[in-house]
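I hope you will forgive my troubling you with a question about protein structure. Could you please explain, in whatever detail you think fit, how the structure tokens follow from the sequence? Thank you for your consideration; the sequence and its tokens are set out here.
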Amino acid sequence: MRKCRSCSTAVIVAALVLAGFTTACAAPAPSSTTPTETPSAAESPEQEQPTEGDAVEEPAVPEPPAPAPAPASKQALFVIYKQFQESEYGEPRTILEDKGVIVTVASSSLDVVTGHLGTRVEPDIVLSDVHAADYDAIVFVGGYGYDRKDPEACRVAQEAAAEGKVLAAICVAPITLAKAGVLKGKRATASVPASTLKAEGAIYTGALVERDGLIITANGPMAARRFGEAIAAALEE
């Protein structure tokens, strides 16, 4: 009898232990609140990496406009003879070159030409090879050795007038323009007697510098600067 009681006690204890173990191992009851799903880093659209086939195109950058071509430099031809007047040559040339004008020097030959004060200038071209159409201005410089009868000078003056070029002469050089027939009916001045120009149809004014259209004349060294400035102004028009 005592032995059966011991067995019953043992069975009860075992049942209690088994019940406790079952309770501890049971899964907790699900929460009534549904958790919010958070996308993983791989699923985040902000961090999604494009594949080779889905490369993102960079926005096209417009090309800057091509720079406008620089305006061509003006061209002036200076005609000189032996014993040319230095200031009548030097001052107008300096004024024009300061404005970006390219100056070419012509004479009856390519030999060095010496001014009446000793300035030596080597011509760039022989006058017989000059074509007025290649220049924007033709400038005849006076001096003690000026050749008043050079047929090539007259030809160039006539071409310049026909081509609508700026045609300028200073001191005795307006004689060339008169003999070329381009001063007929034009106002002009020079350091020669008024009758010389009037005989060729010019309207002699005796001014320091005279401009009539594209023809510019001046009466001597004192007019050199104003002469150069008048040529520069005509080229800029």
User: Anything to note?
Assistant: The two ends are 144 Å apart (CA to CA). The domain at 75-236 is CATH 3.40.50.880 (Rossmann fold). Confidence is low (pLDDT under 50) at residues 1-45.
